[in-house]
Write a structure and sequence with these properties.
Rossmann fold; 5 strands; about 230 residues; 5-stranded parallel beta sheet; 2 domains
């Protein structure tokens, strides 16, 4: 049985049984990142975060920001970045990583892994995926504030920079048409004056950031966070 046929069968069974497809998906170990999602659920069961705080959600640049709360002591931050996720992953698990927290502001970092996944993924496709997630979030809570942290210029993905810049610009243009939104540009500040990327702010993999990189992000992101 193909994966597509299996999914159709799953949808049919869920419809008959009155069970949400997304709920089943979140429990299905054949989907990526199910362990991370289970870990979030376990954390929440032990001590559920305060509501109406600030939610960080997205991929590994947030996942690895383990001490993000220390960077923003005046706000309460819930970090639900997971693995090397892409927009389809965040969309798949939106009921687990976004909706339960009733955040007053959702801050998203995602899209980099989308572009890295395949040469066929275009900036336009990343933008369409962002719009899908944006629509889901706003449909659930029309008043929630939403900020997008631009895709960063990872040295190991230099070949993707043109697509990164295009995707960033498309998302930025879109957000200017929406209320209670912000586009947070971390892309350009991560370059030196001579046009070279700041290699010293990245780990050895030239993909993930070290504390120096996160301090740059802190200064840029802080003014956009709701108090």
């Amino acid at each position: 049985m193909t994966k597509k046929l299996s999914y159709i069968l799953l949808c049919t069974l869920c419809f008959i049984g009155g069970v949400g497809v997304d709920k089943i998906v979140a429990q299905d170990t054949t989907f990526p990142f199910h362990k991370e999602i289970r870990a979030f659920k376990k954390l929440d069961s032990m001590s559920f975060p305060l509501k109406y705080t600030i939610l960080f959600v997205g991929s590994s640049s947030f996942t690895k920001w383990k001490d993000v709360q220390e960077y923003f002591p005046q706000q309460t931050i819930i970090n639900r970045g997971f693995g090397g996720s892409s927009f389809p992953d965040v969309i798949r698990y939106y009921r687990e990583v976004i909706f339960p927290y009733k955040a007053k502001q959702v801050v998203i970092y995602c899209g980099e892994n989308d572009l890295a996944a395949s040469d066929t993924v275009t900036a336009q496709l990343v933008f369409q995926r962002f719009k899908q997630l944006f629509t889901i979030i706003r449909k659930n809570d029309p008043s929630v504030s939403l900020a997008f942290v631009s895709i960063k210029p990872s040295p190991s993905r230099r070949h993707l920079w043109p697509k990164v810049e295009s995707a960033n610009q498309l998302i930025k243009n879109y957000l200017t048409t929406k209320k209670k939104t912000a586009f947070i540009d971390v892309y350009h500040p991560m370059f030196n004056k001579d046009g070279t990327v700041m290699s010293e702010i990245f780990l050895e993999d030239s993909l993930h950031m070290n504390a120096k990189g996160y301090r740059i992000w802190q200064k840029i992101i802080k003014p956009y966070l709701i108090k």
